[in-house]
Amino acid sequence: MIDVRKLRLLRELGHRGTIAAVAEAMSFTPSAVSQQLSALERETGRALLARTGRRVVLTPHGLLLAEHAEAVLAELERAEAALADDAELSGTVRVGAFQTAFNSLVLPAIASVSENCSGLSVSVTEVDPAVVPDLLRCDELDLALVHEYDNVPSTLGAGIDVEPLVDEVVYFASTTRPDVGASEVIRAHSDSRWILGNPGTLCHTMAVRSCQAAGFEPRVAHRIDDYGAVLKLVALGTAVALVPQLGVDDVPDGVVLTPLPARRRTRVAYRRGSGARPALRAVVGELRCAAKGLT
Q1: pLDDT tens digits along 204-245
Q2: PROSITE patterns from the entry (predicted)?
């Protein structure tokens, strides 16, 4: 019978691309990962890996088995969820969240869990949505908040389930009220200095693509991920920015927010098959209650 632990390593190699990355994520040595995958090849009687230079890729048989591994691991999650006792909520739910979700969503949810579920606790880690799939698949988180923009769809990959939580307005932040329609606001600021997030983040990509769609490359004045700091810089009158709804809970005097015809969608993500776990459902329920207060 195929060893599930080896299947997990094969699945991770398919997602991460290198044995070194799999080893780091799974707290193994690279040689141990290689040995386990070689043992899996012997167990299946198929060549699962092929070397291309210094990299290792999955063969067609490896890809096929990795696809089945996703299904097997999801079924194990469903089995654990089915065996969980929904009459008694206990343990810790590990939640990953991006910065702007803390005040409006995560903190109210934690407070409600503490008040209503005495045996259940929540542990929160701030994470960028881009790393959420790997953290979920490696069982470092139980659930996480992720987001996507109209012009930056998410790519969570296999093995992850999501459900909608809240749709947010995206605002144009400046110190002057625009004299053009919402659809022309960005284009009207082609000569302005812009505040962007750091490269690699979804918020950075969203802002760049929004400017490019308006026909220009943004003149970057600052690269800031903290929207509280972004709005304070905007208040100085030297730069403009795009800010999602969850980032505008404390707006400095003098900042004008103009709603744009663009949206950011925040969703709850978890390992496929784990969504029915009572403890997870309890936390998701409290997140939903917090999200209702935003609409």
Answers
A1: 999 999 999 999 999 999 999 999 999 999 999 999 999 999
A2: HTH_LYSR (PS50931)
Label the pairing between strands 193-196 and 219-223: parallel
CATH 3.40.190.10 boundaries in the chain: 91-158+266-292, 168-265
The CATH code belonging to domain 168-265 is: 3.40.190.10
- CATH 1.10.10.10-classified regions of the chain: 4-83
Question: What fold does the segment set 4-83 form as a domain?
Answer: Arc Repressor Mutant, subunit A (1.10.10)
- Tokens coding 199: 């490269």
Three-state secondary structure string covering 3-23: CHHHHHHHHHHHHHCCHHHHH
Evaluate if residue 54 carries a pLDDT over 80.
Answer: no
Cβ contacts of 192 within 8 Å, gap of 6 or more: 174, 219, 239, 240
Question: 97 with 147: CB under 8 angstroms?
Answer: no
**Beta bridge partner(s), residue 123:** 94
Per the CB < 8 A criterion, the answer to whether 13 and 37 are in contact is: yes
Q: Please give the Cα distance from 201 to 148 (Å, whole number).
A: 11
